[in-house]
Specification:
alpha/beta, 28 helices, 8% strand
Length: 626
């Protein structure tokens, strides 16, 4: 009876745009939640994070003080994405700061309700430390990226709905059900990884392709490949091949070879020139196109294998299923169904004189086979990337919106072939899967908040220093803080500093000539021999896990002043216990909601996550003689 009532509600909503607006709001809310429960960043984002900090706080003329001049990394990366994301904070600083303060208030509220690491470590001091440090700049920049990503997904949803408008009225809704609750999309939409900085452009290009504007779509994809991520050029090449050849489109190309050459050549020249001009300036070299250098370093020279090698089939058997696991692989299953019908249609095309397809599973208007072209381009892209031994799920993220579009079309075809009862059952199933995946994403964000112990430790030490020196911070000498490698890799960044000082390779230097509120110098030396020489300069040492702690000279010792917990797995015993007693759990849940006392829910969520000490803060102190 409850299921049938839920079906009636969904059916009623689908007659208007209310359901679609509700789904869009859910997407925006979920992305924002993910940002605010885990505002820190990981080492994979470090180049863009530090570059954004320097653009905002130093300006484009202070290249000598930019972080990448001291820590260039193994290979150059483009500064263009970081520069674009920084521009609003540079030229609309007051406006952006006001919005940042609103987000901080919302973050404070969320982290006081949900048992996140941020809320438990900083508690009532959260607003203070977010304002005293520059984390608010990081939050507003990531929020800006999340907005761009959100609108690109909305544009793609509208594009697939428009492209199929003459054959179906619901494909946009099915796309939303498949795409919106995916945890990796929600969590990483605001992450400053190169793959996700360029994802909005990729989504826009696919939207244009679906609407028939193929030359402009190819132009954007080439730009993304040259400037941001070289692997996108592989997908672009695969897409051009299927567009020009007409394979799986009954021998009819949807793009002339000359059009493809013009689009590629124009975009290649313009994007190459743009990257060479801008990135060469910010890297202070005569000429560089970072993505081409990255391709040479990682692929041609084979250095990517140093980060691990996996079997040829890993993308098909591990990483792609991982991205859709929260929906019990429904999207890959429907995509596979689409693939089977595509092959059957191709078989009829080449082995029969009757050219009309038997299975019209591609719902794009006029039977032009646009989704089919995207499907096989995606498969070819996966095959080419599988040749390289080093594999990461991030390289597959571009295919997620494509497969969601394909799954939406396949689902619409299935609904058209089943009876009324089965249709009701399928609609109920997809709604429940959506809600289940959304719940999983909520827990995913909660767990992820405990993975940034380096950021928590940096902020905890900041609180200690703020309490010690007060709001005026009239310091007569600098405090020197060392962050070890693990701390820098797991949340600590320039945004979590409360002093505007940097260390050059040979001496301590102060940025600008202006007095700073907190005179604090942050050291990130990695070499153990070098650390042994300068350890007596440090007042504090932030240690991650059990990384080596250099010992000070005679007469001094390290005193442990604080410890911080981090993620250590799932409490499976508690989870199993809860699953064995669903009646008791639901009774307690309804009682908590009815009484508006959510302590029980907070305790359950908190206890489901196992934690152990990940971060330690040490203070160098003089040994007192007896």
């Amino acid at each position: 009876m409850v299921n049938f009532s839920l079906y009636l509600v969904i059916q009623g909503l689908m007659t208007t745009s209310t359901l679609q607006h509700l789904l869009d709001l859910t997407l925006f809310t979920s992305i924002t939640y993910m940002l605010l429960v885990a505002p820190y960043t990981k080492v994979e984002e470090s180049f863009n994070v530090q570059a954004i900090h320097d653009f905002i706080n130093l300006g484009i003329d202070s290249l000598d003080s930019f972080d990448h001049m001291y820590f260039p990394g193994a290979v150059k990366r483009t500064c263009i994405g970081s520069l674009l994301l920084s521009l609003p904070s540079i030229y609309l600083s007051n406006f952006m700061r006001q919005w940042a303060l609103r987000l901080i208030s919302l973050a404070t509220l969320i982290n006081s309700i949900v048992p996140t690491s941020l809320g438990k470590v900083l508690a009532k001091e959260l607003p203070n430390v977010l304002k005293e440090t520059k984390v608010y700049q990081l939050i507003i920049t990531r929020f800006l990226l999340s907005l761009v990503t959100f609108f690109s997904i909305i544009y793609l949803r509208k594009s697939i709905a428009y492209a199929c408008s003459k054959t179906s009225k619901n494909i946009g809704i099915w796309f939303s059900f498949f795409m919106y609750p995916l945890p990796h999309i929600l969590f990483y939409s605001s992450r400053l990884l190169p793959n996700f900085i360029c994802l909005p452009l990729f989504n826009a290009a696919i939207g244009l392709f679906l609407c028939g504007d193929i030359p402009r779509s190819i132009t954007i994809l080439v730009f993304v490949g040259v400037v941001f991520r070289f692997e996108v050029l592989v997908f672009t090449g695969a897409l051009i091949f299927f567009c020009v050849s007409g394979i799986f489109r009954y021998g009819r190309p949807i793009m002339k070879f000359r059009e493809a050459v013009v689009s590629v050549a124009t975009s290649l020249l313009l994007s190459g020139f743009l990257s060479a001009r801008i990135d060469s300036y910010f890297w202070n070299v005569e000429i560089t196109i970072p993505e081409f250098e990255s391709f040479i370093f990682n692929i041609l020279k084979g250095n990517s294998s140093e980060w691990g090698v996996e079997p040829f089939h890993a993308y098909f058997t591990r990483y792609l299923p991982k991205l859709f696991a929260s929906q019990f692989e429904l999207t890959p299953i429907l995509t596979l169904l689409f693939t089977v019908f595509s092959l059957l249609n191709a078989k009829k095309l080449y082995l029969s004189s009757h050219k009309k397809p038997d299975y019209n599973v591609d719902y794009v208007n006029y039977g032009v086979g646009t989704l089919t072209t995207l499907l096989w381009s995606s498969y070819l892209y996966m095959l080419v990337l599988s040749v390289n031994g080093h594999k990461e799920w991030r390289f597959m993220v571009y295919l997620v919106p494509i497969f969601c579009c394909i799954a939406a079309s396949a689902f619409e075809w299935v609904l058209s072939k089943v009876g009324k009862f089965i249709r009701k059952l399928l609609l109920l199933s997809i709604c429940l899967l959506f809600l289940g995946s959304l719940l999983f994403s909520f827990v995913f964000g909660l767990i992820s908040s405990w993975n940034y112990t380096g950021g928590d430790a940096a902020q905890k030490l900041n609180l200690r220093l703020i309490d010690m020196y007060g709001p005026n911070a009239n310091m007569i000498k600098p405090i020197v803080v060392h962050w070890d490698v693990g701390t820098c890799m797991n949340g600590a960044s320039l945004f979590t500093q409360i002093g505007d000082n940097k260390a050059s390779q040979d001496q301590w230097v102060s940025m600008d000539d202006q007095p700073v509120k907190y005179w604090i110098i942050y050291d990130k030396t990695e070499d153990t021999d070098a650390l042994a020489q300068i350890v007596d300069d440090f007042d504090y040492w932030v240690q991650y896990d059990d990384e080596p702690l250099a010992q000070p000279s005679d007469g001094y010792k390290w005193i442990l002043v604080d410890m911080l917990e981090g993620y250590d797995g799932i409490n499976t015993q508690l989870v199993i216990s809860l699953l064995k007693n669903p009646g008791q759990v639901f009774a307690q849940l309804f009682h908590s909601i009815e009484s508006k006392n959510f302590t029980w829910i907070q305790n359950v969520l908190d206890n489901c996550i196992k934690k152990k000490v990940r971060g330690k803060i040490w203070e160098r102190a003089k040994i007192q003689s007896l």
